[in-house]
Amino acid sequence: MPLHVIVGAGPVGTTLATTLADDGHDVRIVTRSGSGPQHQRIERVQADASDSTALRPLVKGAAALYNCANPPSYQHWARVWPPLAASLLDAAESASTVLVTMGNLYGYGPATEPITRDHPLNATDHKGTLRNAMWQDALAAHQAGRIRATEARASDFIGPGVQPEAGMSARYVKTALAGKTVYMFGDPDAEHSWSYIPDVARTLAVLGTDERAWGQAWHVPSPPPVSPRELVESASRAAGLQAPRIRRVPRNVLRLFHPFSGLLRELDGVLYQWERPFEIDATATTDTFGLTPAPWPEVIERTLEYWQSAHVRRGAGQRHQTS
């Protein structure tokens, strides 16, 4: 079977590697630490993927190169993403392979209706502008015949591999399961899409192996939107606990902490996603490839199983990465 190269061993990269390997593909996973899942078809390689000289030979002969990496926090995006994206683009071109990028919905900016892949890219925050520039660079290379490029776009991650300390939604659930009051940014009752890690991995695997995907971006099929309040209440019910008390943190209160927290300053730029309904529409992906999302009860059950495992309680496991 052809070789598939994955950069990044967070929840998405790890699950994708296992998915491809279980399907009979040979997989090489590249990280700075040399980490990754154990599997007879998975080779783990320690390398700096932002160094094109180091990455090029690792991609030679590959059928597809998957960008599943992500800087550890918003504050590092502007510094880390440009050289990393440029290196992956260069490596894909040198190997004449497919470049599959794990993206998100930041590039669309605020929306008043379900977001389709044809929605205008009207980012209002520098993080979305940066992701749009990455996609435009890859698309231009595709249109010039230098590479074959595609991108998967997902909403907020949920599921196995997503650490309970990472991301707002995960922190909300962790707090609820501890029996504490949950303080939420934005509107607790605004419906929101959540993308399940196994659904994300299945989408990426298809995009890297089906030529119908190339030259376009595709949304990850996700369960019907669920509000943050319903998310924590669903998790609490599944764990046999009472629904938690929920309190909203107003935006003006959040801004009081901007001088002390770079993360909260960056969060302010994408808080629109939590202040009104924010829904992903993946109809095109389902119609073209037949991919459908896992049912919400399964999403909650599998997520809780992971969070409640001894492996996670000890603080081990993969570091959460968003795209």
From TrEMBL:
Gene3D superfamilies: NAD(P)-binding Rossmann-like Domain
Signal peptide span: none
SUPFAM superfamilies in UniProt: NAD(P)-binding Rossmann-fold domains
Alphabetically ordered keywords of this record: NADP, Oxidoreductase
Ranges where the NAD-dependent epimerase/dehydratase domain occurs: 6-207
An example molecular function term from Gene Ontology annotations: oxidoreductase activity
InterPro entries named in the record: Epimerase_deHydtase, NAD(P)-bd_dom_sf, NmrA/Isoflavone_reductase-like
Domain of life: Bacteria
PANTHER family, per the entry: NMRA-LIKE DOMAIN-CONTAINING PROTEIN-RELATED, NMRA-LIKE FAMILY PROTEIN
Protein name as annotated: NAD-dependent epimerase
Source organism: Phytoactinopolyspora halophila
